[in-house]
## 1
Amino acid sequence: MHRNTLLIAALIFSLLISSCSKSSSRPTDLQVGEAVKSLLPANHKIVRITPVEGIPGIIEVVAKIDTQSVVLYLDKSLKYVFSGSLMEIATKKNLTAESQNIQ
C-alpha cells in the first residue's frame, strides 16, 4: 500500500515537472496567491512563496491557518497542485516538514 502511494505521488510529480518545461517565466506572488485562494480557508495567511531548489518549475507555498502550517507545491503554470511530503532521496530529508516548521 505504502509503495503504491509513493508510486502515485512520483507519477503526479513527474507530470508537474513535465508541464513546467513549456514556459520559462515564474508567476508573480500575487498570481500564486490567487491560485491557492480557492484551496484554503478564508482565514489563511501566506507566509512564503519560493521556487523549490533543484526542481525547475515547482513553487512551494507555505501558509498558516490559525497556528497550523500548510505546504502546497504548484507548477509554474498554476494548473496543478501537490499536497504531501516532498523528500530528497539521497539524504532522506523531508523538505516539507522543514517548511512546516517556519514560524
## 2
Amino acid sequence: MSQNIRPKVAILLKEISTLLSENEREERWLKSFETLFKAAEGGDKDLRYKIKRMYGGMGSFNDLVLMSSEYKPDIEGNEKLDELRHQLYELITSNSEDSF
C-alpha cells in the first residue's frame, strides 16, 4: 500500500536545518536544507532526486562534519546529524513505491 512520505521527509529536513542553524560554519548546508524543506512543503515533484543527489561525491552531505567554535569536532552534534542523515536516506531510498 502506498503512503505519502513527504510529511516525514519534511520533518527530517526541518530537524537537520535546526541542527545546522546551531553551527555558524555551516551556512551553505543550512541554506540547502531550508530550500529542500520549502520544496517539501510546496509539493516539488523532484524532491526525492534533489535529496539523493546531496549524498554522493566528494564534499557531499555524507562528508559533513560539524565543528565546535574551537575548531574541534562537535561530537554530540555529529552523532545527531549522523542519525538524521541516515533516517532521511533510508526514508527516501526504501520507499520508492510510496508517493512523494
## 3
Amino acid sequence: MSQAMSHQTDANAPRITIEAFGPRVRATFNGATVADSTRALVLRERGYPPRIYFPPGDVDMGLLRPTRHTTHCPHKGDAAYWTLRVGDREVENAAWSYPHPIDDVAAIAGHLSFVDAVAVDPVPA
C-alpha cells in the first residue's frame, strides 16, 4: 500500500478530513520498523494522496534526527522535519509533523508522517 490510497477528488468535500485509520499500521525502512500503531490517523487533502500520521509514542524516535528544514502550509500550519537513518541508509527530511497546526487540523498535532521512501502499510490481523 505504502500510503497509495485513493485521492480525495470530490470538489464538494471538505478540503481536509482526518479520521482514525482503523487497523494496525506499520512504517518500515531498510528492514526496520520505524512506527507501529493502532492509533494512527489518515489525513485526506483534496488534490493530494492520503497521508498516515502516527502518534509520536508509536514512532521509534531514536531513528530520527531533527533538521532545520521547515515548511508552511496554509491549511495545516508550520511543519518540522526529521532525517531518518537506519543502518547505512538515510533519508533527509523523511518525516514531518505539525507541532502547532491550525485549529481545523488540531487532531494531527505532534503526529508524524513519512515520505514515500518509507513503506507505510496495514498490518494483517
## 4
Amino acid sequence: MAYKDEYEVARLSLDPALDDAVRAQFGANAAYAFRLHPPMLRALGMRSKVAVPAEVAKPAFSALYAARRLRGTRLDPSVAPRCVAWSAP
C-alpha cells in the first residue's frame, strides 16, 4: 500500500463511490466515521486515532482538498509545527 498524504485521503474520502458502497452494504441510513490521526495531534503527543463522523469529516475534507495547492509550502495546514526545546545555559 502506498503512502497517502492528507490531501489524497481527503480526495479518496470524498469519492461518491465510497458513499455508494456503504449504502449498498449497510443500507441507506447507515452512519459511519473516519478514524484519523492528524500530524498536528501526533505532534501534541496523542497516540491513538480519533473517530470523526462522516457528516463532520466531509466538509473538512472538502476544505482540505481545496487547499492541496499549499502542499509543501509554509502555509501547508497538514504539517505540524516543529517544537524546539530550549535548555537553560
